[in-house]
Amino acid sequence: MSARSIASGTISFGLVSIPVKLFSATQSSAAISFNLLHGKCGSRLKQQYICPREDNIVVQRDEMVKGYEFAKDRYVTFTPDELKSLEEKSTQQIEIAEFVPASKIDPIYLDKPYYLGPEQGADRAYRLLAEAMRKSGRTALARYAARGKQYLVQIRPLPEGGLVMQTLLYADEVRSFSEVPLESGEVKPQELLLAQQIIDQISTDDFQPQKYEDDVRKRTLAQIQRKVEGQEIQAEPERPPTQIIDLMEALKASLAAKGLGAAQQGSPASTSAASASEPAADSASAEATPPRKPAKRAPRELKAAKTKAGK
C-alpha cells in the first residue's frame, strides 16, 4: 500500500523549482493513553474551564479570548483576526538558503522528518538534485512556511535515491550544555583502555533499528489485556538501586562479563576480540590482567625434561 501525501510544496534555489509532495516519515507507535472516568459510575469525564475570580463559574467556549502574559498576571488580549494576522502565510515554498556538509549539523537540532517525493513531471529535476547533493556530500538548509509557522529545515539525500526533509530547531530553542554542571577532571589511561575494550567487544558497523522494540509498551499492553480478561495485574519486581562502586573494578567486571558471554556463544569475532584485548591490558597495567601461575607438568613430561637436560 503506497503512502498518501500530506501536503505539497516546491523546492526552489536560484531559478530552479521542483514541485514535491510531503509524506510523513514516521508513524505513531500508538502511544498508550488512559481516559479519566467517574469512579462511581464509570462515565468518561469532560473537561471544563472555570473562572477562579467569579466563584469558579464554568466559562463557555464563545466567552474565551487568548492573551499573552507580558508581566506577572498581566495580559494583552488578541481577537481571532489579530491572531490570524500574526501567522506566517503558508506559501508551501521550500526555499534553499545554502548547502552545508551533512556532518556539520549537530543531531541535537534535528526534529520531525518528512519524505519528499516528486510531483508528476518533476522526476528528472528531483533525481538530479538528490544525486548532486549525494556526490557533493552536502545537505540543504531551507525555510519552509506552513500551518502559520516558518520552519528551518534540512533536505538531505537518502541511500535509496530519494530526499528527506527534516525540520530543525532554531538556535534559541536549544539549550547550551554549559548550563549542565560538570566538574573538571582527568581520565586515567588504564580506565580509558578498559573502557575502549568494552566498546570494541559490543561494537557493530551497522545500525539495525529492527533489533530494538519498546519493551515497556509491550509489557503494558499485555497487562491491559489481563485486565480486559478479568485477571489481576502482576506487579513487576523492583530493581535494586544503583550503587556507586570503584570505576576500575566496574570496568574490569564489565569486561569479564562481556568476555564470558562471548565465550559461551562461541562467536569467532568475539573470541578474537577478547584475545586481542589481553596483550593491551598487560601493557597498560599489571593490575588490569593478573599474572598467571606456571602450569604444573605431568610426571612423564618432567622425567623426559630431566633426561634431555642430562644429555
What would your notes on this structure say?
Among the domains are: 7-26 and 87-173, Ku70, Chain: A, Domain 2 (Beta Barrel); 51-86, no CATH class; 247-291, no CATH class. 31% of the residues lie in helices and 24% in strands. It has helices spanning 80-86, 123-136, 189-201, 215-228, 247-265, 268-284, 299-310, and strands spanning 7-13, 16-24, 49-51, 57-59, 66-71, 74-78, 93-101, 110-118, 138-146, 149-157, 163-168. A hairpin with a 2-residue loop joins strand 5 and strand 6 (74-78). The radius of gyration is 32 Å and the shape is extended.
According to CATH, what is the topology of the domain at 7-26 and 87-173? Ku70, Chain: A, Domain 2
Assign the structural class, choosing from mainly alpha, mainly beta, alpha/beta, alpha+beta, or little secondary structure. Answer: alpha+beta
Indicate the CATH class of the domain at 7-26 and 87-173: Mainly Beta
> SSE order in H/E notation?
EEEEEEHEEHEEEHHHHH
Largest sheet: 7 strands, mixed, barrel
Number of strands: 11
Which sequence of strands runs across the widest sheet?
1-2-8-11-10-9-7
Kindly report the average pLDDT value.
Answer: 81
Count of DSSP-assigned helices:
7
Q: Per DSSP, what share of the residues sits in E-state strands of 2 or more residues?
A: 15-25%
State the shape.
Answer: extended
Cα Rg: 32 Å
Low-pLDDT windows of residues: 261-291, 301-311
CATH architecture of the domain at 7-26 and 87-173: Beta Barrel
